[in-house]
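In the previous lecture we treated proteins in isolation. Real proteins rarely work alone, and many bind small molecules. This record shows how such a complex is specified: first the sequence, then the SMILES for flavin mononucleotide.
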Amino acid sequence: MQLIQHARLSVAPMMDWTDRHCRYLHRLLSGQTLLYTEMVTAPALVRGGALHLLDFSAEEHPVALQLGGSDPAELAQAARLGAAHGYDEINLNCGCPSDRVQSGSFGAVLMKTPGLVADCVAAMRDAVDVEVTVKCRIGVDDQNPEEVLPEFLARIVAAGCERVTIHARKAWLEGLSPKENRDIPPLDYDLVHRMKGLFPNLHISVNGGIASLDAAEAFLEGGLDGVMIGRAAYHQPADILCAADSRIYGVGEVSDPRAVVEAMKPYIDAHLSSGGKLGQVTRHMLGLFAGKPGARQWRRVLSEDAPRPGAGIEVLDKALSMMDQRAA
Ligand SMILES: Cc1cc2nc3c(=O)[nH]c(=O)nc-3n(C[C@H](O)[C@H](O)[C@H](O)COP(=O)(O)O)c2cc1C
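The predicted 3D structure, ligand included, written as tokens:
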């Protein structure tokens, strides 16, 4: 399957959440869904030499590296590093409502400078053979999305952007926290559909507030090319990912979260043997049985026991058995 087909469904880039352990878990739940890294800033890679931020497991493919930055040459170099590490796609973050950093602006504020974003995309495009994509908002602050979004898309397409994911709400750069900026500005899915009408050849994924596979399928049936899911995929990974392969891609079986716990054990063992801590992996597994009988027991045992010194794989067995007792 080609990357563009995998992009029918993706798990959003989420700082502190979609790290390599989380992605490994998500990959066991769905073999096909495209996974994104947390945002890695170009300055951290290029000036800071923090190449460990690029480490990932071969099993995670297809996996996209999301970069933050606004300097074309630096982003090109960061993209080169990402491609050399084996990422399948390099994505530029134009949606994060973060403050300016020393290196200049990055994230959603780039919605105000489509020419600069185009320069960044063109530089990244020249630097790597893998696909270069953009994740953006519909606008920021007092911008009129109907006007700015088509111009933004036209510029990045002309610069060689192959796919775009649109988080279907504005970012308000003044006065809202990043968290509030994921909930308060209203969603405008119709605008995303209209963009597909204006750019029929551009692969457009919609993001924001999509919390079930039913909803994802409705967007795909409605003419969009892809759906990106963030928080719901993290908090209820089984609901979103277990049936994704069969329903969204028409391949494979529905995965079983319990079998996935077993399949995580060798991975966790290897992590522990290399000096890692249990909780670094299991924190992403808390929602695995969300909505199922005993889910609370599972979550409680993992959250209480995994951080204890010396905690090992037996915590998973205890959590499963507490869950089963509760469910019985
Ligand atoms: C904890 C957290 C961290 C996030 N970090 C990033 C990030 O690094 N890059 C990015 O483009 N978006 C980031 N986002 C935004 C998500 O990618 C997504 O656009 C947003 O959560 C809306 O989708 P959802 O409603 O499906 O969660 C983050 C969201 C959350 C909840």
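Summary for your notes: The beta strands are 9-11, 34-41, 63-68, 89-94, 131-136, 163-167, 203-207, 226-229. Residues 3-249 form a domain with the TIM Barrel fold (CATH 3.20.20.70).
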